[in-house]
């Protein structure tokens, strides 16, 4: 069974760990195991250049989480991390100071930046980085083109667009967003292998990633949404009981005028895309026209519970695949 998963950072990565367990793929994957059962289309809208380094937070979160290098407690960055470089940069008065640039993590950014400067596309760079981490999935950037999520805010009576990371980390999404813009998306092309992987997929699973800036960014690359919609698509709600479980996704939903509820997010993603939608037991009874909704516990507290969520998504996907005409 071939599965495509468009994913952001922490929510996507944790779900993928459960999906791998459900499919019997070890973490990190041993040399001899095939890794093409799961193709991840990683969000690169959060990417940012700081201190001359190209940083891809969501690709790295997926790579580290599945490769065994993640800081489990924080959910991002490397385990056993230190922040000496960050402190030294601050001592030179270098801005910004709000980005959590870890020392171990910096090595990844140096390798990436050097390869990009040498002319390799991000997809090739990501593949090279994954050679070390062996995440057990094919990790494809949604695009090799530069696409960055910017947030329009009002500061001192003036409208200003800031990078998503500045809004998210520095302002903790507490400054109301007037709009969220995927800069460069219109002219971007899906990364190499992305449309092919979707075409070959038996099932598409949307993990509980941020529906606006993670899944939304992937869907915003011309051609990807249409390709996914032709497949059987099952999603896992990132909203439980009217709240994002971890993080501040509600601020993103507010910005695009979508209510923070499991049903509203499914309706926003659309019945043309979604065939099935898993909601938490707290949201049992949710109905969305044209989408098969099932309820079960969706809190990813540990690997076993996450594996069970992934199994439920696979089961629903198999069931619905039989009903969907064409494309399969
Ligand atoms: P980010 O890029 O690091 O913000 O990560 P993602 O976009 O992949 O995922 C973030 C989203 O995951 C959050 O907005 C939450 O709504 C969702 N999330 C986090 N933990 C859980 C969980 O245990 N269960 C569910 N259903 N959703 C979760
Ligand atoms: Ca992200």
From TrEMBL:
InterPro entries: CofD, CofD-like_dom_sf, FbiA/CofD. GO terms for molecular function: LPPG:FO 2-phospho-L-lactate transferase activity. Keywords: Magnesium, Transferase. The lineage of its organism: Bacteria, Bacillati, Actinomycetota, Actinomycetes, Streptosporangiales. SUPFAM superfamilies: CofD-like. This is 2-phospho-L-lactate transferase. It comes from Nocardiopsis changdeensis. It comes from the Bacteria. Its EC number is 2.7.8.28. It holds the Pfam family CofD.
């Amino acid at each position: 069974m071939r599965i495509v998963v468009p994913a952001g950072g922490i929510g996507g990565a944790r779900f993928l760990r459960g999906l791998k367990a459900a499919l019997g793929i070890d973490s990190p994957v041993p040399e001899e195991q095939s890794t093409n059962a799961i193709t991840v289309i990683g969000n690169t809208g959060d990417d940012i250049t700081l201190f001359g380094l190209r940083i891809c937070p969501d690709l790295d979160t997926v790579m580290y989480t599945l490769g065994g290098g993640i800081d489990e407690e924080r959910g991002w960055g490397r385990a056993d991390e230190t922040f000496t470089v960050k402190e030294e940069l601050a001592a030179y008065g270098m801005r910004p100071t709000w980005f959590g640039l870890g020392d171990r993590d910096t090595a990844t950014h140096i390798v990436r930046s050097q390869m990009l400067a040498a002319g390799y596309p991000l997809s090739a760079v990501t593949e090279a980085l994954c050679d070390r981490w062996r995440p057990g999935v094919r990790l494809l950037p949604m695009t090799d083109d530069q696409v960055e999520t910017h947030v329009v805010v009002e500061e001192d009576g003036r409208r200003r667009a800031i990078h998503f990371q500045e809004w998210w980390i520095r302002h903790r999404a507490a400054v109301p967003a007037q709009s969220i813009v995927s800069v460069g998306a219109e002219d971007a092309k899906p990364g190499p292998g992305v449309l092919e992987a979707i075409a070959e997929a038996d099932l598409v699973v949307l993990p509980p990633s941020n529906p606006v800036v993670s899944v939304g960014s992937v869907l915003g690359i011309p051609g990807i949404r249409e390709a996914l919609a032709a497949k059987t698509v099952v999603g896992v709600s990132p909203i439980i009981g009217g709240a994002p479980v971890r993080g501040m996704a509600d601020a993103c939903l507010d910005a695009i005028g979508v209510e923070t509820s499991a049903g509203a997010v499914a309706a926003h993603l659309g019945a043309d895309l979604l065939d099935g939608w898993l909601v938490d037991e707290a949201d049992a009874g949710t109905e969305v026209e044209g989408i098969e909704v099932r309820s079960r516990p969706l809190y990813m507290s540990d690997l076993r519970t996450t594996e069970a969520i992934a199994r439920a998504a696979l089961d629903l996907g198999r069931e619905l695949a039989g009903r969907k005409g064409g494309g399969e």
